[in-house]
Specification:
The chain has six helices and 15 strands. By secondary structure, the chain is of the alpha/beta class. Helices cover 40% and strands 16% of the residues. Strand 14 and strand 15 form a beta hairpin. The relative contact order is 0.08. Helix 4 packs antiparallel against helix 5.
């Protein structure tokens, strides 16, 4: 009797999760999750020579772990479970050394190399294919609840301990040198180095901006 009851409960539970599509490998939601997972691992393999295989990347990439947790935290934040999102983000910070506010928007194939000491504020936006080294700060200016953190374009490289402050835009393909302190917008394809940052614009990038 007990075995039949257990089997029936198992069937009911499997039927429920199948109808809801929670663990259906063929449903669009699960396909998207698996695709993002593969993208993350491949991005680490492409940009971190120290990662010698997919398993090593999965086990020993704290930056990737932080991003995975952030996706859950961001979903909770948008679903108005803000306290829970903050609690989980706090634990993620303790485990990985990466502090990402649940409200921050982060694109696909982002790599946080080493990860330790990275801080990403609430209204920050990070585009696809960004490479960020340890100690980077995307910080805010002012005390309002409006947009106060930077927007990082696609394919941007942020060197170790670079600091980008305020609601400025760093254009696609730009490079921020290690230790740079950036408080002004950076054009696409440009390089910012030094403290305060000096902007170096390549000729082809300047032509693209002018046209």
């Amino acid at each position: 009797m007990e075995c039949k009851l257990t089997a029936r409960l198992k069937e009911d539970w499997l039927s429920l999760i199948s109808r809801q599509g929670w663990f259906c490998l063929e449903c669009p939601r699960m396909v998207s999750i698996v695709e993002r997972f593969r993208e993350d691992v491949q991005a680490v393999l492409d940009r971190d020579p120290a990662a010698r295989g997919a398993l090593e990347a999965i086990l020993f990439s704290p930056g990737m772990h932080a991003l995975w947790m952030h996706r859950l935290n961001h979903w909770l934040w948008r679903a108005n479970f803000k306290l829970l999102a903050r609690i989980l983000a706090h634990f993620t910070r303790m485990l990985t050394g990466v502090e990402i506010h649940p409200g921050a928007r982060i694109g696909r194939r982002v790599v946080l190399d080493h990860g330790m000491g990275i801080v990403i504020g609430e209204t920050a936006e990070v585009g696809d294919d960004v490479l960020m080294y340890h100690g980077v700060t995307l910080g805010g200016t002012g005390f309002t609840r409006e947009k106060r953190h930077p927007t990082i374009g696609k394919g941007v490289l942020l060197g170790a301990h670079a600091v980008v402050l305020g609601p400025i835009v760093v254009g696609d393909g730009a490079k921020i040198g290690a230790g740079a302190v950036v408080t002004k917008p950076v054009p696409p394809g440009a390089t910012a180095i030094g403290n305060p940052a000096q902007i170096i614009v390549r000729e082809e990038a300047l032509e693209a901006v002018e046209t």
